[in-house]
Design a protein that fits this description.
Layout (H helix, E strand, L loop, with lengths): L2 H18 L4 H9 L22 H14 L4 E3 L7 E3 L6 E3 L2 E3 L20 E7 L1 H4 L9 H12 L6 E7 L5 H9 L2 H4 L3 E7 L34 H6 L13 H23 L3 E7 L4 H8 L8 E3 L2 H5 L4 E3 L2 E4 L1 H18 L11 H19 L5 H6 L5 E3 L5 H5 L1 E6 L3 E11 L5 E8 L10 E5 L2 E6 L6 E7 L2 H4 L3 E8 L3 E3 L5 E3 L1 E9 L2
Parallel strand pairs: 5-6, 5-7, 7-8, 8-9
Antiparallel strand pairs: 1-2, 3-4, 10-11, 12-22, 13-14, 14-19, 14-22, 15-18, 15-22, 16-17, 16-19, 20-21
Helix pairs in contact: 1-2, 1-3, 5-12, 6-9, 10-13, 12-13
Length: 516
């Protein structure tokens, strides 16, 4: 290859590198200066720079270099429900409290064969940071312990593996989408989906440099309106989490309903593909609420509750402030699951032996969890300590009123393209909203649709920086409810300083339910 051909190939690789990560300019320099092997020839359609985008070898080359030179850990996924995975083939990359490796698929897991080889027994753990193993080494996770137990049950050495398909802050919807869309090649014999109490949160995207974004790609029209339990503390600098996980209002209940439908859909698909499905319900503190919604389409043998006390036991937590399981916690869960799998026949190809230690764990924890289901925790004490009011004044926000914001409103009442609040109703039949425009002429004429639960009750149309005040009738069937969701959905927005990444529509001052 002559010098001209080498330069052309290097330039194609550089263009590809820039296309994959526009911010990785240092990588472009590396690719321009390195010697290149092979070539596309002179002239013709095959020599155009754009063909680099479709050259698998060059794509792998550029991606590997991006990962090696990067600092973050996340990589975007084309499925907007899934949003992101880890960057592929990470080695010793720091992620907050842990150092992680990843496989070629972007999972914190060893490489495994796809399609699954004949004769292999494959158990898949599906979930979020608990499955990914936040705060522990990869070899300390539940699947590693369970795989050891299962191998001891079968000394023949037949192929068997437990895999962890888990990503920090994935929610139930994302987990189900990721697994369901690859069942034909993954072919799990058993899927254990671990449900945790933040599994109704939105699922953040990956930014270009491998950091987390503040939007869920599934809802591009919502821009940066991100709904999650801890949101109020970051949006307002207050102390309380939101009420999103409790199932008290429409926003929370519809997320539960959707998650339960996706769980049922996944379970049916797993069973149709010849496997078994088990929902491990560890929705700490609200076990009965999660069981009611998430297991609604499951057979009794397809779900098992896990008591809230376990996640509060410091022997099994990373720390007092971190409820993720430590090594001892993962070991206990593995023993619990071994006994559940054995007694329910969830791995019919495996001859599982009774283990006194596993049986003892189940005999201690399962009755406690079942009692928790029979006598669900009431919110009376919590609602006496924390107020859910019929009115919010964003000019004078406090801990309790900030916690009524599921997301989409931040300090100063700045309203994003989507926002959702929980408000006490109890017969109040009138909704009053006041605020002012942003003073951004590029969005004069923006329409903000106002909803009570899922019903549109009217619109706002902020103009310039002028104040606005509007009154809407609450549908009678909704006015009877204890709590309702008041929601705002805009059809346009403006970028805000300093970095032009916040997407804003107006300023809310008050939201109030009133009247009889």
């Amino acid at each position: 290859m002559d010098a001209t051909q080498q330069l052309r190939r290097a330039w194609r690789v550089a263009l590809l590198f820039a296309g994959i990560a526009a911010g990785a300019l240092v990588g472009m320099g590396w690719l321009l200066l390195r010697p290149a092997a092979g070539g596309a020839g002179d002239g013709g359609a095959g020599s155009g720079e754009n063909t680099a985008l479709f050259d698998p070898e060059l794509r792998r080359e550029a991606l590997a270099e991006l990962v090696a030179r990067g600092q973050g850990v996340w990589d975007a996924h084309p499925d907007p429900a899934v949003a992101r995975l880890l960057q592929p083939n990470l080695k010793g990359r720091a992620l907050e409290a842990i150092t992680i490796d990843s496989n070629e698929l972007g999972l914190r897991e060893k490489s495994f064969a796809l399609p699954k080889p004949a004769g292999t027994t494959r158990v898949v753990f599906l979930g979020d940071s608990f499955v990914m193993g936040y705060g522990v080494k990869a070899d300390d996770r539940v699947g590693v312990h369970l795989e050891k137990l299962l191998r001891e049950d079968d000394p023949s050495g037949a192929p068997l593996e437990c895999l962890h398909l888990g990503v920090n802050t994935w929610n139930v919807y994302s987990e189900c989408a990721y697994l369901r869309r690859q069942l034909a090649v993954l072919k799990p014999d058993l899927v254990v989906q671990i449900a945790i109490r933040n599994d109704l949160d939105d699922n953040p995207a990956a930014r270009g440099m491998g950091a987390l974004g503040m939007w869920w790609p599934r809802f591009p029209e919502r821009a940066d309106a991100f709904l999650y339990v801890e949101g109020p503390r970051f949006a307002f600098g207050t102390k309380e989490n939101s009420w999103l996980l409790f199932g008290l209002d429409w926003e929370s209940r519809q997320r539960f309903t959707e998650a339960g439908s996706e769980v049922g859909r996944l379970a049916r698909a797993v069973e149709a593909a010849g496997g078994k499905y088990l929902l491990f319900n560890s929705y700490s503190g609200l076990l009965a609420t999660a069981q009611q919604h998430l297991a609604k389409e499951l057979a009794p043998a397809q779900s098992v509750p896990f008591p809230s006390s376990f996640n509060k036991d410091e022997r099994f937590r990373n720390s007092k402030s971190d409820a993720h399981w430590n090594r001892a916690g993962h070991e206990q869960v593995a023993l619990f699951l071994h006994e559940v799998i054995r007694t329910r026949g969830l791995l019919p190809k495996c001859k599982l032996v009774e283990r006194p230690a596993a049986k003892a764990v189940v005999e201690r924890l399962l009755p406690e969890a079942e009692r928790e289901l029979e006598r669900p925790a009431t919110l009376k004490g919590l609602l006496e300590r924390r107020t859910i009011a019929p009115a919010l004044d964003f000019r004078r926000i406090d801990d309790d009123s900030a916690a009524q914001v599921h997301g989409g409103v931040v300090r100063g009442g700045l309203l994003s393209a989507y926002a959702s609040l929980i408000v006490r109703c109890e017969g109040r039949a009138t909704l009053k909203v006041s605020g002012r425009g942003l003073g951004r002429p590029e969005i004069d004429g923006v329409t903000v649709t106002v909803f009570v639960d899922d019903q549109a009750v009217g619109t706002l149309q902020p103009k310039g920086a002028a104040p606005f005040a509007a009154t809407f009738a609450v549908p009678p069937e909704l006015a009877k409810q204890t709590f309702v969701s008041v929601r705002f959905q805009a059809d346009d927005f403006a970028y805000a300083l300093p970095d032009l990444r916040a997407c804003q529509v107006a300023v809310l001052e008050t939201v109030e339910l009133t009247g009889g």
